[in-house]
Q: What sequence folds into this?
């Protein structure tokens, strides 16, 4: 299973379980959240795909933080 990590499989399993539970209790919020998690796992994306969650250090910042 190339490209499938444990976290991705857990996200797919959780999304599927949440969506099924939402269908059983007829709760649209649960169905939506479950489908979102399942689609994110199938497309291999995360909530932070634009790179906005990561912080890049510049050389100047790295030198500033390394000085004691």
A:
């Amino acid at each position: 299973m190339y490209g499938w990590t444990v976290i991705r499989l857990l996200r797919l399993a959780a999304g599927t379980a949440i969506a099924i539970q939402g269908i059983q209790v007829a709760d649209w919020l649960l169905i939506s959240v479950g489908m979102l998690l399942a689609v994110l796992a199938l497309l291999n994306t995360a909530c932070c795909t634009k790179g906005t969650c990561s912080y890049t250090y510049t050389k100047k910042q790295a030198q500033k933080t390394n000085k004691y």
